[in-house]
Amino acid sequence: MPTTAPSPAITHPAPTTQATAPPADLSLEERMALINAAMTVRLEEAAVAYEVNTAHIATKPVDLADVLTVPLTPTLQPPTPYPTPVAALLQRAHHRLLTGGWCSGALVDAEGARCLYGAIHAEARGDQNLESRGLEVLMDAIRRKFTGVDSVPSFNDAHSSGRVPMRTLDQAVGLAHARRL
Questions:
Q1: Per-residue pLDDT tens digits for 103-125
Q2: Where exactly are the structural domains of the chain?
Q3: Cα separation, 21 vs 147, whole angstroms
Q4: pTM of the predicted structure, to 2 decimals
């Protein structure tokens, strides 16, 4: 039978600090409260360290509506129209922007994309009364979130992407429906 050489002893360095264990005569609830207090202190220290380490990073708040988006490919069929004329107009305009594209700086761009006003104008199909009522409800929806906006075109052109204008148009649809317009 072969003999093996004795393995060298592994020495572990002695811990520099001793973990303090709660006295054994405490009840379970008291020991849990002690541990909870110790963990709270550690979490508060970690939170302060995080704030100090990330204070130099410039961030802006994230709007969840910008994160949660509609499917990338909108359906070709418009949704079931609202029963009221203004809500249906705004809904058709919203669908037109989803399928045809959004633009700023023009009623219609070279690719056929439209601005908010251009989409409402096209979907009103010559009914100026319906168009003006739709624009009025859209302005109400805009003024609920944005101050100092004087017109739908200026609001549309103030944005570099269609995300906010289209979300506002969708909110105007709900507003017109709630008002039974």
A1: 998 889 888 899 999 999 999 99
A2: 22-59, 64-178
A3: 60
A4: 0.59
